[in-house]
Task: inverse folding
């Protein structure tokens, strides 16, 4: 099968615009800090960077290896960013959804942020080397279903427009496949997946919405979820995780990217998003709302499943 | 009148999470009215259906429940005004999640039973018990609890070789 190349030539021009804008806002004191991406040591790779000096602005880049959702650095779970003045942050469309959600949950204030949006055609899947060229195969699965190539509500967005071919929606296809199975077959599938989990909690640490000071899954009085990496506790952890993120998850797929055991975490997230769309016509991340779908109700909500 | 005692080969364990204001009172009414219903049900009383965390259902299955019932006040009757409306959404979504990971939803029943509906309580409990009895024991979660960590199984040739070399 031949693969289609994803056009990323605009990323160079985008990097330049980001650098110029970063330099401008840092030198005129509009922001104290900028969180963005910089080249890392391995060829073609990128890593998050926090800059506070205008002379560092030229370090900022945007490439298909800029996979991280930087929104997580702004949550109270992370203390990497000095909290003074306005903070600038480089965001892709999916990262923007996370920020929108965090604003709705009163974790961030819009007026304390300066958002540099990135017109994004896609980034690399975690299973490909960072120097790999971007094709429909090496593309991160989330990008095949992206509906936010151009982030909205930012303070600055480079003018380039990404070319985004219509691709097979990887999660939707997989969800449909699983839905067509019998419960026993689905159980067997997830049992195998969950059994791989080593409870490293990387998925939790990287998620912008897992900012609880004490996670339910760490509590031992009473212990709701067994903490050892055994099948029973793993299954409970994954179900609780998916439930706590239902209606909030931005679909950045960071959890799935960081999982060392290749568990398809975002598949559960996308399934929940699909159900919330069908049940309550809710889609996370598009507007700042005070309440999420599971913290509000409508008296006419469906109750056909209740006797 | 004494009902003939029926003998069954399998007696399912049913956990019922109920709110104290409606369903618990309804079950009480069934009792004081001397209505008969299967003794398979273990009732756990909560202040409100809004207090019933989905993780309790999970825990119940892990601890050996063959079926779970969640029951509270009818919409509009909640003692705390909106607890059951919140619960309704939460459980609608939680059901979908359980279904997706492969739990048979026939083992999970939700109902509204008011303090005056002793008869409905009997009906709901009897139906669920019979349904679950026909389905047989819930083994999935119990098996998980018996199983060991993935790394306990040396299931690839590479791993076996490395292990034998130690
Ligand atoms: S999901 Fe959209 S915005 Fe996010 S990395 Fe993929 S293409 Fe870019
Ligand atoms: S659950 Fe995963 S995809 Fe959703 S916001 Fe958290 S890290 Fe992103
Ligand atoms: S990152 Fe993967 S292995 Fe680690 S706790 Fe999460 S699901 Fe389990």
Result:
């Amino acid at each position: 099968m031949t693969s289609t190349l994803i056009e990323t030539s605009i990323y160079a021009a985008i990097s330049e615009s980001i650098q110029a804008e970063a330099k401008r806002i840092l030198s005129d004191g509009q922001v104290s800090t900028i969180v963005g991406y910089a080249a890392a040591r391995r060829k073609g790779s990128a890593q998050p960077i926090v800059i506070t000096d205008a002379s560092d602005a030229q370090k900022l880049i945007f490439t298909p290896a800029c996979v991280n959702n930087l929104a997580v650095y702004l949550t109270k779970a992370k203390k990497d960013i000095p909290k003074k003045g306005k903070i600038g942050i480089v965001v892709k469309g999916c990262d923007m959804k996370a920020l929108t959600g965090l604003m709705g949950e009163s974790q961030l204030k819009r007026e304390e942020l300066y958002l540099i949006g990135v017109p994004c055609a896609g980034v690399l899947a975690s299973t490909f080397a960072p120097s790999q060229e971007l094709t429909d195969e090496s593309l991160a699965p989330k990008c095949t279903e992206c509906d936010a190539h151009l982030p909205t509500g930012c303070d600055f967005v480079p003018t380039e427009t990404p070319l985004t071919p219509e691709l097979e929606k990887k999660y939707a296809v997989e969800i449909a496949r699983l839905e067509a199975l019998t419960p026993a077959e689905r159980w067997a599938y997830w049992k195998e997946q969950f059994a791989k989990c080593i409870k490293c909690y990387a998925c939790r640490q990287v998620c912008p919405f897992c900012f609880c000071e004490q996670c339910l899954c760490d509590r031992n009085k009473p212990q709701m979820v067994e903490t050892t990496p055994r099948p029973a506790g793993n299954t409970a952890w994954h179900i609780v995780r998916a439930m706590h993120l239902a209606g909030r998850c931005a679909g950045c797929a960071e959890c799935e990217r960081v999982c060392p055991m290749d568990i398809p975490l975002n598949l559960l997230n996308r399934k929940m998003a699909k159900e919330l769309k069908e049940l309550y016509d809710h889609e996370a991340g598009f507007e700042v709302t005070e309440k999420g779908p599971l913290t509000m109700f409508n008296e006419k909500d469906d109750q056909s499943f209740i006797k | 009148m004494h009902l003939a005692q029926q003998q069954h080969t399998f007696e399912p364990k049913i956990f019922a999470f109920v709110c104290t204001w409606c369903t618990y009172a309804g079950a009480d009414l069934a009792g004081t009215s001397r209505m008969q219903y299967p003794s398979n049900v273990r009732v756990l009383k909560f202040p409100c259906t809004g207090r019933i965390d989905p993780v309790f259902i999970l825990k119940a299955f892990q601890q050996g429940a063959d079926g779970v019932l969640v029951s509270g006040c009818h919409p509009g009757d909640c003692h705390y005004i909106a607890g059951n409306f919140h619960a309704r959404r939460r459980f609608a979504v939680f059901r979908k999640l359980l279904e997706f990971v492969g739990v048979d939803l026939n083992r999970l029943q939700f109902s509204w039973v008011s303090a005056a509906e002793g008869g409905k309580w009997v009906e709901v409990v009897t139906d669920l018990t019979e349904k679950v009895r026909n389905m047989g024991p819930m083994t999935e979660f119990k098996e998980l609890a018996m199983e060991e960590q993935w790394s306990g199984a040396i299931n690839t040739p590479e791993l076996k070789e490395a292990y034998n070399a130690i």
About this structure: Chain A has two domains: 10-145, 170-280. Helices of chain A lie at 10-27, 93-104, 170-179, 183-195, 202-206, 231-245, 254-258, 265-280. The two ends of chain A are 51 Å apart (CA to CA). Strands of chain A lie at 33-39, 46-51, 87-91, 113-117.
